[in-house]
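Need fresh eyes. Consider my entry:
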Amino acid sequence: MHLSDEQVRSSTAELNKRLSESTAKITEGRIRADQRELQRRNGEMQDNAKNDPTKDEAVESGWKECLSAKNAQDLCVLLEKQKSRCDEAVAKLEEIGTQLCSQLREQDHEYVTALRRNRKEIE
């Protein structure tokens, strides 16, 4: 075995080690950033729930009204109102879900870009 073959193997091993270490550092950084973002979002959601409990209360009280209906016509009217309240709540949740998916795609893209940039720097 020649000295140059040994140096090539040693250099390749060192580059692979550095690639692995830097990839791990990028991943750890993204995980920490994602955890901070999750905490921020949870705080926002809790704040929103505290600031706007009326919608939840409206849905909750709507069910109580439905249970207290005396005849079929009243029940039908109350159920239509309740359906409208529930549709609004579901639409709001779907909007939040869409926003979260969009943010997740953006973060995934940033992560992949960072990994590619890291790989190019090492090469």
About this structure: The two ends are 25 Å apart (CA to CA). The CA atoms of residues 94 and 100 lie 10 Å apart.
